[in-house]
Design brief:
Elements (H helix, E strand, L loop, with lengths): L36 H31 L5 E14 L4 E14 L4 E14 L2 E8 L2 E3 L3 E5 L2 E7 L4 H13 L1 E16 L2 E2 L6 E9 L14 E2 L1 E3 L5
Antiparallel strand pairs: 1-2, 1-11, 2-6, 2-7, 3-4, 3-5, 3-8, 8-9, 8-10, 10-12
C-alpha cells in the first residue's frame, strides 16, 4: 500500500520569482539628444542657421522701415547710330553713341560705382565694350553717362538673323542691346556695404542717321531691366 503524502499547511506556488528590474535612460547634459554626437551636431547647426536667417530677416525689415530704399533706375534717353553695315566678309562696321541716365531716388543712401563696363551687342554677339570712369552718386541724384562704340567686328549671322538684318536695314531701325556690368557699394551715413554686382540690360531700337543728317525715325527712351545679385 502506497505511503501517504505529508500534509501541506499552505498553498504551494512553486519557487519564488525574482523581482523585475526597472531600466531607464538617464538623460545626459545635452538636453535629451539620444542619437549620438552626430545628431546633436546636426541639431546645433540647424538651430544656428535658423537663428541667423531670422536675425538677417529682422535686420532687413528694420533697414527697410528706417531708410525705405527705392530701386535705382536706368534709362537710355538718346542714341545716335551713324554707321551700321556689313561688308562682304561678314564684318560689321558700327558707330554708336548713347546717353544713359542713372537715377538714385533715395534720400539717405549714396552709391559708389566702383566699376562700370558697358557693352553693345547685336544678335547676342558683343560688338565692343566701353569702360567708364568710376564715380560716387549722392542722394536723390541723376547722373548721365555717355558710352560710345566705334569699330569693326566679325559677326556670324544665321539665315534667319540675316533676314532680320535685311528687314531692319530696309526700315532704317536696328535692334541693338546694351548691357552694363557693375560693381557697386551703398553708403548709409558712415557705413558702407559690401560690393554687389548688378547687371543692367536695355533693348534698344536705334534709327540709322547719315552723317550730318537726321534719321527718318526718332529714338524713344528705353527703361532698362536690372538684375540685383549679390554673388556671381
Amino acid at each position: 500500500m502506497a505511503e501517504k503524502q505529508p500534509h501541506l499547511n499552505g498553498a504551494y506556488y512553486g519557487p519564488a520569482v525574482p523581482p523585475k528590474q526597472n531600466s531607464y535612460h538617464r538623460p545626459g547634459r545635452g538636453g535629451g539628444c539620444v542619437c549620438g554626437c552626430g545628431c546633436c551636431l546636426l541639431k546645433f547647426i540647424f538651430n544656428l542657421v535658423l537663428t541667423v536667417v531670422v536675425a538677417v530677416g529682422l535686420l532687413a525689415l528694420l533697414f527697410w522701415l528706417i531708410f525705405r530704399p527705392n530701386l535705382v533706375k536706368f534709362h537710355v534717353t538718346d542714341a545716335e547710330l551713324t554707321q551700321f553695315n556689313f561688308t562682304a566678309t561678314n564684318t560689321l562696321s558700327y558707330d554708336l553713341k548713347l546717353n544713359l541716365t542713372i537715377r538714385n531716388p533715395n534720400r539717405r543712401i549714396g552709391i559708389y560705382y566702383d566699376s562700370i563696363e558697358v557693352r553693345a551687342l547685336y544678335e547676342g554677339q558683343r560688338l565692343a565694350s566701353d569702360y567708364l570712369t568710376p564715380f560716387y552718386q549722392g542722394h536723390k541724384n541723376t547722373t548721365t553717362l555717355s558710352p560710345a562704340f566705334q569699330g569693326q567686328k566679325l559677326v556670324q549671322l544665321s539665315t534667319s538673323e540675316q533676314s532680320d538684318f535685311n528687314s531692319e536695314q530696309t526700315a532704317g531701325v536696328y535692334n541693338i542691346d546694351m548691357k552694363l556690368y557693375l560693381r557697386v557699394r551703398f553708403k548709409l551715413g558712415k557705413i558702407k556695404t559690401f560690393r554687389i554686382k548688378p547687371r543692367v540690360k536695355c533693348g534698344l531700337k536705334v534709327p540709322l542717321s547719315s552723317s550730318g543728317s537726321a534719321a527718318t525715325a526718332t529714338f524713344q527712351t528705353e527703361k532698362c531691366d536690372i538684375d540685383w545679385r549679390i554673388f556671381r
